[in-house]
Specification:
This protein is 70% helix and 7% strand. Helix 3 crosses helix 4. The protein has 150 residues and is mainly alpha-helical. The radius of gyration is 19 Å and the shape is globular. The protein contains six helices and two strands, in the order H-H-H-H-E-E-H-H. A two-stranded antiparallel ribbon has the order 1-2.
């Protein structure tokens, strides 16, 4: 059993709360622009115009279930925001690509987020940014190793 006064446990709680708050900021923005947070997640991936972007890739990038991805892609297809093209890697799959209208739509929603993220990161001195990134990288690598041992 973990001791409630354990400083590491307290730090983990702060970390988890901050991570949830970060996610909530995105969810609030999605609601503000009239879309679901799942739709926002898909737009963020599609906006980067990946070479191979099948629905399976979207599931992996967004951690959303296949049904949710399929529903979003189908909706985008009906709105003329995406087209499906044959995958160059595996012809059984279709790539999801933004149309010109889709690029305009995605940009209108995604660019303000990217600008806010950039401004936020730029507000930190370079040394703090590097320390934050180095620390998070170390945390994630160690967590991954610990989880693999389970």
């Amino acid at each position: 059993m973990t001791n409630e006064n354990d400083p590491v446990l307290q730090d983990l709680r702060v970390f988890f709360n901050q991570w949830h708050e970060y996610s909530d900021i995105y969810a609030e923005y999605a609601k503000k622009v009239g879309i679901s947070s799942s739709t926002l997640d898909v737009l963020l991936v599609l906006n980067e115009e990946p070479t191979e972007c099948t629905q399976k890739v979207l599931c992996g990038e967004t951690f959303l279930p296949k049904q949710t991805i399929n529903s979003i892609v189908t909706s985008f297809l009906h709105q003329g925001l995406v087209v499906l093209t044959e995958s160059q890697v595996d012809r059984r799959f279709k790539n999801v690509r933004l149309t010109e209208a889709g690029k305009v739509y995605a940009s209108k929603i995604v660019q303000p987020i990217l600008a806010a993220e950039h401004a936020t990161m730029a507000s930190l001195p370079a040394a703090k940014r590097q320390k934050m990134l180095t620390t998070l990288t170390h945390y994630l690598q160690t967590f991954k190793q610990n989880m693999r041992q389970l």
